[in-house]
Amino acid sequence: MRAPSPRSPLRAVLRNPLGAGSAAVLLLVLAAVLLAPVLRPGGAQSSNILDAYDGAAAGHPFGFDGAGRDELAMLLYGGRATLGEAGLALLIALILGLPLGLCAGYFAGRFDAVGSWAVNLVMALPGMVVLLAARAVLGPTTVVLMVVLGVLIAPSFFRLARGVAADLRGELFIDAARVAGLPAWRILTRHVLVAVRAPVLIQASLVAGVAIGMQAALGFLGISTGVSAPSWGGMLSDAYTSIYTHPILMLWPGLALGLTTAALLLLAVALRDALEDRPGQASARRTRRPEPVRVVPTPAAAAGPARAAARSPLLSIRGLTVAYAGPQGAEREVVHGVDLDVRPGEVLGLVGESGSGKTQTALSVLGLLPLGGRITGGSVLIDGAETVGADERALRRLRGGVVGYVPQEPMSNLDPCFTIGSQLAEPLRAVLGLGRREAAARVLDLLRAVEIADPARVARSYPHEISGGMAQRVLIAGAVSCEPRLLVADEPTTALDVSVQAEILDLLRRLQQDQNLGLLLVTHNLGVVADLCDRVAVMRAGAIVETGEARQILHAPEHEHTRALLDAVLDDAPVRAPWQARPTRSVA
Ligand SMILES: Nc1ncnc2c1ncn2[C@@H]1O[C@H](COP(=O)(O)OP(=O)(O)OP(=O)(O)O)[C@@H](O)[C@H]1O
Asked: Where is the ABC transporter domain (predicted)?
């Protein structure tokens, strides 16, 4: 397995000849423009009519314009106006479009509807007419016109960010981050912004080019302050009056405009290539943790399920119904009045045929139903707190800290852009408020606790650099990282190799017993039920048909559907040996 090479994107851009060349041109232009008062302390307005239209001379390499002003000084000071005002328009467009687009895509619903409506309205406006109207109403101030231009081009960022955020919203690693208790702003700024940065950079370069062009056009048409203050557009306008006699005067501002916009575009392309080629950000730092994670078996765990059953439930579901919006707006109910309890230290297996509603029930507990699905009735109490109808803040308090989630697909639940260490540290910092070093050290302990032999290397790895089994161990480490009391595991071994499944189940059982966790285990595997579960609830067509002790359900099922499920197990199918506590061991 290859260790990740945390290259900085800047270095990658500079290694690319296209990137290095365009960055050099842009830097040169920017430096020249910024240093204008040093290079030409006399300013751009000093003129001598006797020099009008004169060619290059000592100290004046670009010659003089029709008013006898130094062309180089005009270019330098004109660049300050043109680039500065175009930058302002870009900034306004980014400030308005990017956060609103991210929020619209991520939160969807009414936020998206209102945002998209407003954006469509702005896009329907004819830009040039609005600018001319703004000039008439607000006066010939380019700065104000550039603010208006920024508002007009903000929809391009809105739509881009909205599209990416809406796509990512359904990604499992976003769900995993939500279950870990991360607030929406943190998910948006970390996971979503990282995905949107490459297209936004390209878009920003295009928009910067358009803004530079528009600023120059306003100056060229003489509808801005460019008449008195120099700008590249104003220079083009002046040069245009003598285009047949002194065409060279068109060359300098034209060249400045062309070079700058071309360099911007090429730099963005090189940056995009560098960012998309780069698997993630800098690896987590290796630090020593002062104290290892200790998992102490509690007396309650040792007392077994009989004692656990006597305590009040950690999870109590009553009359849960879930429905999905149909094509004609009518809702289709897929979970019908489910009742379930999970007590501390108890493993409840939720079994049933495919499509019976197990996953919908588990996702309801976490408040993570996919778009279109909603809880239409009933109650879900986690540690006594009602989650149905609770706001996002209340749910966040429960996620991570009280309830953890082990998903079905290990790889899709890890963000490919970040190292394992950084992803595990994130909830530790957000939920437990640990510092960077403390979180990094605890990550190593967590990786050790899930029996990963080389935690430092795994913490530095990106998801594509580890195996599926190891990824599932990482997710289990994440699920228990904030010391929850309830775990929801949705078919945690389905996506794994048979040989790895047993190890993962053993690990889950050990952690569950050591930490006295309540575990809601969604599975269709009755072997797993026999091995791990204290009690079992059998689902069929969205309803629970039978609940009882695992031994009773497996040996003396009462409902005919449970009997049919047991009959469907192949007679010669391998049966897992009952779980036995064993010393912790390490796997690579
Ligand atoms: N996004 C969705 N939109 C509409 N209906 C859905 C959606 N997701 C699930 N359903 C429906 O909900 C019902 C229950 O699905 P669920 O995923 O809970 O089944 P399951 O028991 O977990 O099955 P499996 O073991 O195959 O995952 C199914 O009839 C399914 O068609």
From this structure: 317-566
d(CA 171, CA 174): 5
What is the pLDDT tens value at each position of the chain, 588 positions in all? Answer: 344 444 566 777 788 888 899 999 999 999 998 988 888 887 777 777 777 777 777 778 888 887 778 888 888 998 888 899 899 999 999 999 999 999 998 888 888 889 889 988 888 888 878 888 888 888 777 788 889 989 999 999 999 899 888 888 877 778 778 777 778 888 888 788 887 887 888 788 878 888 898 888 888 887 765 446 788 888 888 888 888 888 888 888 899 999 999 998 888 888 777 766 554 433 333 333 333 333 333 333 344 444 444 457 889 999 999 999 877 778 889 999 999 999 998 999 999 888 899 999 999 988 888 888 899 999 999 988 888 888 877 887 787 678 888 888 888 888 888 899 998 998 888 888 888 889 999 999 889 888 888 889 999 999 888 888 888 889 888 888 888 889 999 888 876 777 778 788 888 888 888 888 899 999 888 878 888 889 999 999 999 999 999 888 888 888 888 888 877 764 545 444 554 544 444 443
Ligand 1: residue whose CA is nearest its atom 22: 359
Superfamily of the domain at 13-42+64-277: MetI-like (1.10.3720.10)
Spell out a b/e string for 149-173, using b for 16 or more CB atoms within 10 Å of the CB, else e. Answer: bbbbbbbbbbbbbbebbbebbebbb
In this prediction the pTM is 0.61
Pocket of ligand 1 (CB under 6 A): 324, 334, 352, 354-360, 370, 372-373, 524
The rounded Å distance from CA 354 to ligand 1 centre is: 8
Residue 357 Cα, ligand 1 centroid: separation in angstroms?
6
Distance (angstroms) between ligand 1 centre and the Cα of 335 equals 9
Nearest protein Cα to ligand 1, atom 18 = 357
Beta bridge partner(s), residue 376: none
Residue boundaries of the structural domains of the chain: 13-42+64-277, 301-402+484-528, 410-483
Domain at 301-402+484-528: CATH architecture: 3-Layer(aba) Sandwich (3.40)
Check if the interface score ipTM surpasses 0.85. Answer: yes
C-alpha span between 208 and 157 (Å, rounded): 12
Tokens representing 69 are 């002003």
